[in-house]
Amino acid sequence: MAKASPIQPLEYFCCGCSLDFGVFIILCVHACVSAMYIFTTVANIVFETPTLGFRVSPDTQTFNCGFALAGLPFIISGFSGMKYQHETHLRIYLYWLMLTFIIDFVFVLIDQVKNNCLHIPQIFAESGGSFACGVMRIISIITLVMFLSFMGYAVFTVWSRCLELQIGGSAPSLEALLTQARHDEAALVYQHRSGLLGTGPPPKDGIPVVYGSLASPMYSGSNSIFGGDVHDVTFPPRATAGSRRTA
């Protein structure tokens, strides 16, 4: 049995949406960002076509592309965990997301410290170098805080869903197996049809449910040929005997 976590997990994503929806959004955004890194690196370095981030050093672009390619299997594992409700698959993606969060945090922090006063917009530069540098540092701090908030919330959302699946166990998987078993059993049921040459409507009480099954009723379950409601088992039949006496 899973131990209770001292940290209270999320119950909803963005104050109303389900955790499944939130994790799905996070996976889609992560996949789009990875695709963007791969596309821009190939365009900037291989095809020499300037796109987003073409001023970044080729070493950094190559590392970003390789890291994005390495993350694709983990993103697929996250989608698999969401589709089949497997906590292990989703937790594998959680570990990769945490590693991505740490690496991105280090890179963003280094970039903000080294380059926040190098690329100053002209509208700020006209007001003075010190003022422009101070504004850029404030913008950098706000950007870093927002980045930490969004990434931390994404990690916390995926962790909450993993904990929910861990505490719930494999109940969804067992339910899916039970549903499939019922479907397979229903496919084996003999579809009996009464009536002339077996073309009539199926009886209300099936005969038999499955060959040799104790669930099948011993009697009843047949349809009359001409809509009669009396089954005469005497011989000769009473109707015939009555007609003979009359004659």
Write the layout of secondary structure elements.
Blueprint: H1 19-46, H2 58-84, H3 87-115, H4 122-125, H5 129-168, H6 171-188, H7 238-246
Helix pairs in contact: 1-2, 1-5, 2-3, 3-5
How would you summarize this macromolecular structure in one to three sentences?
With 247 residues, this protein is mainly α. It is 63% helix and 0% strand.
- Contiguous helical run count: 7
The main β sheet shows up as: none
Overall shape: it is: elongated
Mean pLDDT: 76
The total count of strands amounts to 0
Percent of residues in helices comes to 55-70%
Distance between the termini: 85 Å
What structural category do the secondary elements indicate? mainly alpha
Question: How would you describe the overall organization of this protein?
Answer:
This protein has seven helices and no strands. With about 250 residues, it is mainly α. The radius of gyration is 35 Å and the shape is elongated. It starts with 18 loop residues before the first helix and ends with a helix.
